[in-house]
Amino acid sequence: MTAFFRNPFDRWAADGGADAPPVDRAPAPPSEPKPDAARPKIGLALGAGAARGWSHIGVLRELAAHGVVPDVVAGTSIGAVVGACYAAGKLDEIESFALSMTKRRVFRMMDISFSGMSLIGGERLRAALERELATMRIEELPIGFAVVATEVGSGHEVWLKRGPVAEAVRASYALPGIFEPVRIGDRWLFDGALVNPIPITVCRALGADFVIAVNVTADTMYRSHIIHDHHGEASGGVAEAPFAERRDSVVAEHLLPRYFHRRPSAAPNVAASMIDAFNIIQDRILRSRMAGDPPDATIHARHEDVGMFDFHRAKELIELGHEATKRSLPNIFAHIPLVGATP
């Protein structure tokens, strides 16, 4: 894939101030302006939202089509997944992966954990990430990038700006009780949405002058169910997932819906209760964080009828990202002086 982002490191050196020329000497000829001096450094904050995060792909595509190129990217949870792939020049790969997901394949990516730390081990997801991002480190990516995680026990907000990309991303999406926490250094980390669902502050810390936030959560909480009627789906000619089918994947396919899905009139089970509680907490924190440090522009890519694990609906979610970005372009261009760009 041809990368459509620019390297920000050549803009991070501070400009030296020039003294006024002596009155008895001709002033030095002005230096040529930098090509991008007309616009501020742009930061893109990609928010949490589980399956709805596939909308981030459409957002990135649409921004690029209109010349809006982020200099820094920060992500939380699914925003960290898509943001990392973008920063690494792997947007094509993550889009292909998203579009290949079917209802049945989603369950087969979820291996049952027997560690006692979570319901899902996440080894298949880890393998998929490491296959694409195995040798990459955050500090070596072509653009500034960081992800948010939460420290187990203390609740501290942790910004991961160095180290292996895949490991940091796994920590950022490790939903408590559902995915196993990730140990980095001497800390156990899990989902960053508990402390900073849309990392606007991280973008500013990375040097962004103008921050675009992407909100993929709905005003009303998304449903705690995963998927309906997964057994009846045909493959549709899509290539099989790159993981060998094992007995535990078949167990997961039959077992997980019982944990996550409930009828509206039924009492909540353990997993559904955890997810509902997590969603309520995330919503309150998101409202507070955005009120305290509002972005310069917000893209609302929200869908009321998408469940937390509806990863098989990537096509419509990516299109939703495109459409949401188009609606937000006038506000974005009102703040970013991009020469020749038209919404």
Please supply descriptive tags for the structure shown above.
343 residues, alpha/beta, Cytosolic phospholipase A2 catalytic domain, 8-stranded mixed beta sheet, 10 helices, 36% helix, globular, disordered N terminus, hydrolase, PNPLA_dom
Summary, kept brief:
One of its GO terms (molecular function) is hydrolase activity. With 343 residues, this protein is an alpha/beta fold.
What would you note in describing this structure?
With 343 residues, this protein is an alpha/beta fold. The chain has one domain: Cytosolic phospholipase A2 catalytic domain (3-Layer(aba) Sandwich). Helix content is 36%, strand content 12%. The protein has ten helices and eight strands. Strands 1, 2, 3, 4, 5, 6, 7 and 8 form an eight-stranded mixed beta sheet that branches. Strand 5 and strand 6 form a beta hairpin. Helix 1 crosses helix 10, helix 2 packs antiparallel against helix 6 and helix 5 packs antiparallel against helix 6. It is globular. The two termini are 25 Å apart.
How is the secondary structure organized here?
Blueprint: E1 42-46, H1 55-65, E2 72-76, H2 78-87, H3 91-100, H4 103-108, H5 123-133, E3 144-151, E4 157-160, H6 165-173, E5 182-184, E6 187-191, H7 200-205, E7 210-215, H8 247-260, H9 270-292, E8 297-300, H10 314-335
Parallel strand pairs: 1-2, 1-7, 2-3, 7-8
Antiparallel strand pairs: 3-4, 3-6, 5-6
Helix pairs in contact: 1-10, 2-6, 5-6
The residue-averaged pLDDT reads 75
CATH architecture descriptor? 3-Layer(aba) Sandwich
Global structural class: alpha/beta
**What is the radius of gyration?**
22 Å
**How many domains, as an integer?**
1
The CATH superfamily label reads Cytosolic phospholipase A2 catalytic domain
Tell me the β content: 5-15%
Helical element count?
Answer: 10
Summarize the helix and strand pattern as letters. Answer: EHEHHHHEEHEEHEHHEH
Bin the helical content. 25-40%
- What is the CATH domain class? Alpha Beta
Region (Disordered): 1-40
Motif (GXSXG): 75-79
Pfam families: Patatin
Biased composition (Low complexity): 14-26
